[in-house]
Amino acid sequence: MVLRRAAELEAAREARADDEIDPDDLTRLGEEVGLSAPVMEQALAELNRGQLASVPPKPLERLLGAARVWVERHVPGRPGRVSRALEQFMAEQLMVVHRHHGDRIEWVRAEGLFPGLARSVAFAERYSFGPASRVETVVCAEGNGTRVSFRIEMGAAQRLGLRSLTARGMALSGFGLLLGQGVSGLAAALGCAGAAGLSLSWCWWHERQHLAKLRAQVGVGPERFLDELSRKRKVRTPGGAPLVTRSREAS
């Protein structure tokens, strides 16, 4: 415990003026405590992608589940070609670029009559990001391949679920009060209140299950896209040149 605390103090003392530890110093500290360079590099890459941010779940997330979906995999191929294939995939999913940060891109749903009609007609078969409010993708070199990650925000679907749950709760509460006025006796009133509580609990469970299915659904499209990149198949890029990937197990 003393050595670990001393290492933390030493790292804090050598921190930069902007309170960030130099990656080389962090890797050196990891090697001193027996951590290999590859795992330190992977941890640093995850930190740069925002995956290590320790944010406590919000009350709404405790009530209805997580508000985002992570999909990530290592695939063969150079980052440039993988990025072009990814951009084509997102365009086919009716997503447009909101902000471009280089390796990291923020996507939002394409608006308009045709995209809305296309999602409503063939939502389950083709378009995975219908319930998503925003998607962030990161493509970066890793080893002899490329690391691709999707962070899918589900805040809009979560808020819609909360409104639905609130409306059902108010309706059940009103029905319980109305029914309670027509019965006499404490036991009957408690029975009505208990029935309303059970109904509300069922609505909450049903809404959580529905949102869990939506989270699983939005992850299917990215997973299939990464499957295509991981198998020995040709993925067409917008310029027409095929992206040929080698057979390799995804890590």
Structure report:
The protein is an alpha+beta fold and 251 residues long. 54% of the residues lie in helices and 18% in strands. The strands form two sheets. Strands 1-5-4-3-2 form a five-stranded antiparallel sheet, with helices on one face. Strand 2 (95-100) and strand 3 (104-109) form a beta hairpin. Helix 2 crosses helix 3 (37-48). The longest helix is centred in the last third of the chain and has 45 residues, at 186-230. The two termini are 34 Å apart.
Briefly characterize the structure:
By secondary structure, the chain is an alpha+beta fold. It is built from eight helices and seven strands; from the N terminus they run H-H-H-H-E-H-E-E-H-E-E-H-H-E-E.
